[in-house]
Design goal:
With 475 residues, the chain is α/β, with parallel strands linked by helices. 44% of the residues lie in helices and 16% in strands. The protein is built from 14 helices and 17 strands. Strands 5, 6, 7, 8, 9 and 10 form a six-stranded mixed beta sheet that branches. Strands 4-3-11-12 form a four-stranded parallel beta sheet, with helices on both faces. Helix 8 crosses helix 9 and helix 13 runs antiparallel to helix 14. Bound molecules: zinc ion. Zinc ion (ZN) binds next to loops. Zinc ion binds next to loops.
Length: 475
Amino acid sequence: MNTATPRIRFFNTLTHRKETFIPIEEGKVGMYTCGPTVYDYAHIGNFRAFLFEDLLKRWLEYRAFKVTHVMNLTDVDDKTIRGSQTQHVPLDQYTEHYANAFFADIMALNIKLADHYPRATCHIPEMVTVGKKLIQNGYAYKSQDGSIYYAIGKFSSYGKLSHIKVAKLQAGARVKTDEYTKEDAQDFALWKAWTPEDGDVFWETELGKGRPGWHIECSAMSMRYLGETFDIHCGGIDNMFPHHENEIAQSEGATGKKFVNYWLHNEHLLVEGRKMAKKFGNFYTLRDLLGKGYDPIIIRYLLLSTHYRSQFNFTFEALDAAAAAVNRLRNFVRRLQDAQGEGSGGKVADLLQEVQLDFGGAMDDDLNVSVALGALFDFVREVNALLDAGAVSRSEADSVDALMKRFDSVLGVVGEVTQQDTLSKKAEELIEKREEARKAKDWVAADALRVRLNEMGVVVEDTAQGVRWRLVKKA
Ligand SMILES: [Zn+2]
């Protein structure tokens, strides 16, 4: 259907500008996304990143790329070890619980599964290989306590991703914790020598007795599954420094080749106008929201609907608006099923062509989803007007339906829409009674039934084709 060659453009953090996406191998994309540290339930800020990555992958697939997606699970680091010790359970048992919870959450959000979910504890040999190469190449050294550190002063382009200048490095200054700020830019630990606090968590390797640092796992596992140079690496902006900066230093220091061609970072999520934090009472896991009765698909839509490089303010009001938007799409698809009009005289065909160009053009432009959704809702409004006028033929409705399915392969929010499966028997009875009351022109009874239906979350609309209903979520 599309004759123009798609030109997808991404904002590349590495070069700080939008670039046309050219994959290493034509038609294929290797994509690595930093996964969860399985020490707790993931929060909605984490899911904003995972949903942005899902949208990116689905868009590349819409444009006919074959995507190989790898997401790691961090199942050994400072936090997982501390957590397992607090709960007095073995590390693997502790992390398995949160890994299972993570998979349940991403399935609820209709996030497509990656091709590989490598776990850090299953790839120690690969990390040791990278560590050894870095020592050989002069980028890493063993400290007195037996830990192996990366000497960032030796990697001349250190800071090229996060665009920081490492001005005055104190010789020998080191940081052993996995997470730190730009102010602490120092030599970081690739391999942490065992200490009594690590308990029974250690590996005996050529790098000594100990465990890997956090950063080396992503270097080792991404290259293991995607090769030494691959197309796209994503993550939240908070992982750009030090994590991604260190990944580049490690991988390029070990191989001498460019690590990743395109780096894409999503911005922060705010909740009710401020940074999400337990102390502010605005910290939510997905489970917290599902426990309040929210539909995970509505949460998906909301977190997707703002451009990934804009800060996003999550509010409960916005969640209600998202529910209305998804309902509009579902109702539209439902209406198409009844279309039996004369035909629009080419109007539907024109609208189909227009919306594909507009939606596609916006998404190709660094995943500008808000503009793409604007085009989609304009299209829905215009086809709805033709449906109101009884002008949409069966075959036109089928074409519209097919395109809606194709868009939904990207958005993942409409799903299968049928008339029956979502309305309760009680609601059906009330709708019938209301129809009878209307026929009898008993407007008082009809209105009372409408109120009862509204209380059940069912909104009825009287149209030329008869009564329509839609479900709305109660806050
Ligand atoms: Zn990572």
